Amino acid sequence: MSTTTTSAQVPVTLRRGPHLGPLARYILIRFGISVLLIFGVTLVTFTLANLVPADPAQAALGERAASDPAIVAAFREAQGLDKPVVTQYLVYIGHLLQGNLGTSTQSHNPVSQDLSVAFPATAELALFVIVFSIIIGVGLGTWAAIRQNRFVDQLFRVVSLIGISIPTFWLALAAFYVFFYQLHWAPGTGRLSASLQAPPKVTGMYTIDALVAGQYTTFWNALSHLILPGLVLILFTVGLLVRFSRSAVLDVLNQEYVLAARAKGLSSAAVIFRYVLRGASLPILTIVGLAFGSLLSGTVLTEQVFGWGGIGQYAYKSATTLDLPAVMGVGLVVGVVYILTNFIIDVVYGVIDPRVRVQ
């Protein structure tokens, strides 16, 4: 009699590598795209700087020194301008990887050192403007949408139109003349009064550094200098946000899920904050990101009027003196600012709206 033995089937579990969720995969893809865009910015910045028809040697050396061929040749060799364009670009990338943006031909300081002073000044102004602009602009835009075609709506639309239409440089000049020269309500140009010294550097933003150091007199003085240029830029940014917020909220107000929330008996405040603003947040975030990137990249004319010493004023001086290393440094910083701002906005998109990260 034969006996048949049946072997037991043992389930085998295969180990797989770590599984990335939709949000992590979405962030990694956006990060990779941002890195490629930064590389493209370096290429565009270098190409445009080298297409400038003027001679950088003559702009840097002056008319007398530029007339001496030996001095011009020595300058070109020192700056690497005698090498082929491809070689110059590779050297430029190698320096960037080491954190070297070149040396300014006007200040004779490293461009990174000049930008480390100019960029925090612009960042301080930009943060002040964007925080108040979001609070005021989104609030008024939402209120206008809720009160559609009523007096409040018409009033806010007129105010936003005025804010967008008035040139910021004209408004800056008018505000400076009225509030400083005529009424003496605002301090003069610069970020601090001449009688005060800058606080110990932590962030480069005088208001924050003064608070960290406990220098409250310096803090109030820096804040008083910040208010007038900030208000000029807030008027334009608020006008922009009111129009886009109103349009975004109107698109959401008649959606079925909003009508269902109202049918459940939820209060108006709950419907607005839990449903309407969340549904309208994506287009609002887009315009906030663009506005913040624009502020961080420097408001040239406003900074020039108020002598703010930010990246906009630095870019203006560099362009007028044909300081190519400084111009390339500013172009790179502006490009990176926009790319990082868009990356952060894309990540927030993925966190807020699951449909974005799934797609």
From TrEMBL:
Keywords: Cell membrane, Membrane, Transmembrane, Transmembrane helix, Transport. Residues 119-349 form the ABC transmembrane type-1 domain. Pfam families: BPD_transp_1, BPD_transp_1_N. It is found in: Cell membrane. The keyword Transmembrane helix applies. SUPFAM superfamilies: MetI-like. It is a multi-pass membrane protein. InterPro entries: BPD_transp_1_N, MetI-like, MetI-like_sf. GO terms for biological process: transmembrane transport. CDD domains: TM_PBP2. Its main location: membrane. PROSITE patterns: ABC_TM1. Belongs to the binding-protein-dependent transport system permease family. This is Peptide ABC transporter permease.
